[in-house]
Amino acid sequence: MKKLSFILFLFFSTFVQAQDTLPRFSVLQSGSSILISWKNNYTQQIENISIQRSYDSLKHFSTIGNVLNPLALENGYTDYNPPYIRMYYRVFITFSDGTYIITTPQKPVQLPPPPEPEPEVPVIAPKEPEKVVERDSATAVIPEETSEPDIYRPKKREPWRVDPLETEKKGITPGLKEKEGEVITYPSKRIFSSGNEQVVIVLPDAMIKHYTARFFNAEGTMIFELKNLRENYLIIEKVYFGKSGWYTFEIYDRGKLIEKNKLFIPQDKKKQSVLKSRP
Asked: What Å distances lie between residue 149 and 29, 131, 141, 167, CA to CA?
């Protein structure tokens, strides 16, 4: 336990030391939140510090919050559940003499997880020796009795097979290894609904692939399409789907269909509470 506490202390100490000094600042992603932090070494009297964000690095920046104490030597701001995890952030600094500074926009950097503690080595109890009896000057080994049924070998023997206990297999060409296909499950590992009533797209190898995603309503009509997906992690607001209910989607790589699955868009929580309160 002491070793784990020491490792976590080193991890968070490294994070604090990584803070940049204004006008530089740090932007780190931790789960679905964005952490903006900095150190303040200005000798001028700072009047206000605002945090701004935008979908691009050139324009359409809007203020999302202000710090309570702009004169603090170490300060920061947390953007909880932003609409897009790869937005651009900048800091707007105003001084008491009327001058101001707008920092260079930055995109979030993934915060690495803290190191895991070393696994404990399990203690294996010594195995009791098997019983050995003498029979007709020959040694026979009697296995220990167990109450568990034999579930690995079939009870029915099929003598027409090469191995009577071998189950039927597909024909495989000698010398070639059978390729195992990808198992598609629901919910999908690539596109799914999050607990924040948003649709999440996770494509770990998007930079080396050519992904396209198409979404269809319950009648099978395509409602929108996302081409040339290059981001590993995307968030789609549910307003693009129009209403709650079941939707299907298809994922293509270079025009080849690799997954067809479904997802459910839940009803807005505010509407659900209103419906429940009605008599």
From this structure: 51, 21, 20, 19
Same fold, 17-110 and 191-270: yes
**Alpha helix ranges (H) inside the chain:** 2-17, 269-277
Q: Where are the domains of the chain?
A: 17-110, 191-270
Q: Give residue 243's identity as a one-letter amino acid code.
A: K
* This prediction's pTM: 0.38
From first to last of its 279 residues, the chain has per-residue pLDDT tens of 444 444 444 444 444 445 678 888 989 888 888 989 999 888 888 999 999 998 887 878 889 999 888 888 888 899 988 888 888 999 999 998 888 898 999 899 887 666 677 777 777 777 777 665 555 544 455 555 555 444 444 444 444 443 444 444 445 555 555 555 566 777 888 998 877 678 889 988 888 889 999 999 999 999 999 988 888 888 888 888 888 889 999 999 999 999 999 988 888 766 555 445 555
CATH code of domain 191-270: 2.60.40.3580
For residue 248, which of 214, 210, 197 has the smallest C-alpha distance?
A: 214
Q: Which of 3.40.50.10240, 3.40.50.150, 2.60.40.2060, 2.120.10.30 would CATH assign to domain 17-110? A: 2.60.40.2060
